[in-house]
């Protein structure tokens, strides 16, 4: 409210006096709320840092699991122009020679007759049945869709299209264009059949079936599977140019044919590359990098917690940085304690117990981890224990990654993770304090209004007393 500078009758600084009383009344209450707000904000920020660090480590461990970081296999092709390769953790080390004998192809047909592109030209009517493999569709051609463009659109846009595309090729000959049919998928099972026995007009000429006599449709390209020979012994086929798990855990992507020798086929006999050598081996470098990343991430988490919970006795008692924001906090200590316990927990693999220390990772006195510094020695450890390291970390349910994820989730889960619950509690407290400050402001505004009115009333009373006194003095002076 607006306050006047001084009382009209008393000359007192009513506004100033009101403000002083309000300030004296507000200060202890406001300071208490403000201090509590600061404490809550500091704690909320600190818990946020801890949760963020825990979540970062959890995300890294989840990525390790998806990327098979500790048990990955690397695969290489000595000629990726002909064949590329990928391997999962299921792959076993080995070397193979691959001959690419045949590439997968889609089926392509072209009608021999020319069809007019004139939109007024009627090409025929009736039912056209198109089949690809074991799928088929029936098109009803009538007066409203019997021109060339409409027929092509009807084929391509049909909801039950079995996997065929119709296109037009303008050969430059007088009379129009030829229709080409091609399958969307490769493989010898995906062959096209066209039944026009129920059709009239020029469209009836598009009938096609393998072995059909006097067909007016040419086969431009036969439907064909891809074929490879492994180590000049085993022949394998695929409906497309990708072979998955022909060699366990390996995916092969064919690019083009390798050469042949003495086949009387100059197209392949003249190709210099006769086979592609693929090599599958343990990805020890990836495992080494993953161990380093794990140690760094864990130490970063411990560093964050140590900073927030630490206490520096060398600093002055009144130094705000003497104790961390979460010094003495049991929840944060629980993160550290449970993680250390997990690191020390042995994991059984093939009847034998293993610990982190078996893989070059040691726990220091300050709780941090240290990876074997001698790179050659670490390489030897990884090489000798590669399969075991993979199982130690990635073993389903009982591996370290699974156990760590379960533990960290108990802290970060949005619903019942202990750090999340703590954050929610602090946010509720934060809101409650904001409400307290709002209520205080309302109360102080009312208190200010009451106090100011009281001073005005006092000023008015003083004015009345002064007037009465003045009247009495005048009356007494009149008696003289």
Task: Report the helical percentage.
Answer: 40-55%
How would you sum up the major sheet? Answer: 5 strands, antiparallel
Query: What is the element string, with H for helices and E for strands?
Result: HEEEEEEHEEEEEEEEHEHHEEEEHHHH
Order of the strands making up the biggest sheet? 1-15-3-11-12
The total of helices stands at 9
Distance between the termini: 49 Å
Per the principal axes of the C-alpha atoms, what is the gross shape? flat
Summed over residues and divided by their number, the pLDDT gives a mean of: 91
Stretches with pLDDT under 50, minimum 5 residues: 1-5
Number of strands: 19
Radius of gyration (CA) equals 43 Å
Strand coverage percent: 15-25%
Structural class computed from helices and strand pairing:
alpha+beta
